[in-house]
Amino acid sequence: MPRQQRRHTGPAAQGDDAESSHFDHAALFEFSKVINSSLELDFILSHILLTIMGKILSTRGLVALRRDGNSYGVETVKGFPSALRGTQWTIRSLPAGSFAVSSLDGKKHPWVRSLQDEGVTIVLPLVIAERTIGFLGFGERLARKKLHAREITYLRSLANISATAIEKSQMIGELQRVNRNLDRRVQELGTLSELGREFSALLDPEKLVRLLVFSLLGQIGVRRYVICVKNGPDMNVVASKIDGPPPQGELLSLLARIKGPTFTKDLVVRGPVDPRPVLDSLTLSVLVPIELKGEARGLLLLGDKLSREQFSEGDLEFVASLGNLAIISLENARLFKEAIEKQKLEDELLIAREIQKGLLPSVIPEIPGFQISATNVSSKQVGGDYYDVLRTSDGRHIIAIGDVSGKGSPAALLMANLQATIRALVPLGLSLGELTGRVNDLMCENTGGDKFVTFFWGAINHRDMTLTYVNAGHNYPYVIHDDGTSGRLEKGGMILGVMKTPVAYEEGVISLRGGDMLVLFTDGVSEAMNAQQQEYGEERLERVLHRVHGEDAPSVVRAIHDDVALHTSGAPQSDDITMMVVKIR
Fold first, then answer.
1. What number is the average pLDDT over the span 550-563?
2. Nearest to 87 by CA among 96, 102, 77
3. Where in the chain is the domain with CATH 3.30.450.40?
4. pLDDT confidence of residue 553
5. How far apart are CA 64 and CA 91, in angstroms?
6. Which listed CATH number (3.40.1280.10, 3.40.50.720, 3.60.40.10, 3.90.950.10) goes with 362-584?
7. What is the DSSP secondary-structure string of 251-313?
8. Listed range (88-92, 266-270, 310-314, 434-438) with the worst mean pLDDT
9. Distance from CA of residue 200 to its chain's centroid?
């Protein structure tokens, strides 16, 4: 029998092993030098595959990296079908070290079948500090030989170096991504700051909307858009660029209830109306509601970008911030306009107040033997109460007081009309009953019957000391005699302005003597409310009159006013307060 050749274990064989080990170490060093010379993950993965495929003589290789949880995604393939790239496998745990796929139990490792179906026969895990970050997979070796111990050791060294390089590349890539996002955010903040200054400098709503449109076009590069702003209870379209009519009414109200920016395809429909078909037909893919103080005040509907890139979360946040800038500026513009209009109205009311004061007698004519004092306090800038003292051609004096229904400017206008009518008719020399009828008819023609006036007037004849009067639905004036007895002036007819005079107004006549007092007032006195919604009342007024009837006219007016103020105790004035006191000396 031929003799078996003995393995050389002498110095020559040991020298060969040393040279081979040196070669392996040099190759590992060169491999590490190459893959660590780049931060590009694709280059690193490609070089890893080509190096190891060359070492084990395999024509197919892939790299799968760990993603979320137990999911591994194929990043790079060589020799395998390109469609395999992007494939994901769920692998709960990989055996330690390199292994042949065929050696694993498919029942214990369900993912093995998936690798076998793709032609993966050898798996080399990528591990750092006992943490698996991925694996290398290879097809059948050309020589169909199993890996021997020395090859496995060498491949593990390559895998360790590869894992370190891959993680470094991923960390640098993540850091670069974070830096890019940070740079983008800084740029966006700078852009928003500049736009904020531009928005705050504008007070014209049309210019603000136009600036918002230009910002969307320039910063985001949208091709289609619909911009809506809430005006009152409705959401209205203020600008749009789409193919077809923009959405309206209920659909906009429904979209405005969406919380936060979202893609239209992700809308959750709760109700009978599904907005997605309409938005799809208009190729609007992004919805950004804009809120102010928790209330939906605007809505941005955007189409695709001109670059055809997908909207990122950062894009949606930027658009929402941009929309908030615009809505705040629009709200400021609205408030500024309202403030200007309010100031303009207040200025006009101040002018009207001065005009109205000019309509009341600035100096009350003196009547021999009589003292007259009057006051008028409006609950608003202007009011509807009226009083007057006129001298007639025959030497008599007309005293008048009236209360127009309502408050504010409408009542003031009607009061001015009443005053002009009275001053135009008094010189005709007609009786008070006839004059009152004419005043009523003219009021009906001018007001159309939706406004009315309570009115009292009387003619004082200081020669025979009589008062002839007509009461047209007004609070009955008081007559307080010197001896403490009192009466009311009730004769007349219906209030003015409701309907044309059906029956002539009745005149009343009373005799006057020294010490008597006439008190004319509007319901702002008798119906003055306190904080408990209690009226001042005519009974309390009468008690005050009996208490002060011996004083002069100005003192009586002051006493009534002070007692009303005491009753209301700081409550807001509910109506115009007007009164006139005539004291016979």
1. 95
2. 77
3. 19-173, 202-335
4. 95
5. 11
6. 3.60.40.10
7. HHHHHHT--S-EEGGGPPP-SS---HHHHHHTT--EEEEEEETTEEEEEEEE--BTT-PPPPH
8. 266-270
9. 16
What pLDDT, on a 0 to 100 scale, did the predictor assign at position 22? Answer: 47
- The CA angle 147-99-94, to the nearest 5 degrees, is 160
Place of tokens 């760990």: 66
Amino acid identity at 373: S
| Beta carbons of 112 and 104 less than 8 angstroms apart | yes
CA–CA distances in Å: residue 73 to residues 39, 63, 87, 198, 487: 20, 8, 6, 47, 105
Residue identified by tokens 């007559």 is 479
- At 584 the three-state DSSP class reads strand
| Least confident segment among 314-323, 368-377, 507-516, 534-543 | 314-323
- What architecture does CATH give domain 19-173? 2-Layer Sandwich (3.30)
Whole-number pLDDT of residue 377 = 86
- The whole-angstrom separation of Cα 507 and Cα 472 is 10
C-beta of residue 329 within 8 angstroms of C-beta of residue 202: yes
How wide is the angle at C-alpha 146 spanned by C-alphas 144 and 152, nearest 5°? 135
- pLDDT digit string, tens, across residues 57-68: 999 999 999 988
Flag whether pLDDT at 471 surpasses 60: yes
Q: So what's the pLDDT on residue 381?
A: 67
Is residue 205 helix, strand or coil?
helix
What is the rounded distance in angstroms from the CA atom of residue 373 to the CA atom of residue 355?
21
With beta carbons less than 8 A apart as the criterion, state whether 236 and 350 touch: no
**pLDDT for 398 beyond 80:** yes
Under DSSP, is residue 375 helix (H, G, I), strand (E, B) or coil?
strand
Rounded mean pLDDT of the chain? 86
Residue 190 pLDDT:
77
CATH superfamily of 202-335: GAF domain (3.30.450.40)
Ramachandran quadrant class, 278 (left: phi over 0; alpha: psi -120 to 50; beta: rest) = alpha
Residue 502 in tokens: 């059906």
Domain with CATH 3.60.40.10 in the chain: 362-584
* Phi, psi dihedral angles at 245 (to 5 degrees): -70, 140
Question: Exposure pattern of 532-567 as b/e (b: 16+ CB <10 Å)?
Answer: eeeebebeebbebbeebbeeebeebbbbbeebbeeb
The residue with tokens 């009745």 is 506
Asked if pLDDT for residue 436 goes beyond 70, the answer is yes
pLDDT tens for each residue of 132-158: 999 999 999 987 778 888 888 888 899
Sequence-ordered strand ranges (E) for 242-306: 262-263, 286-292, 295-302
Q: How many residues does the chain have?
A: 585
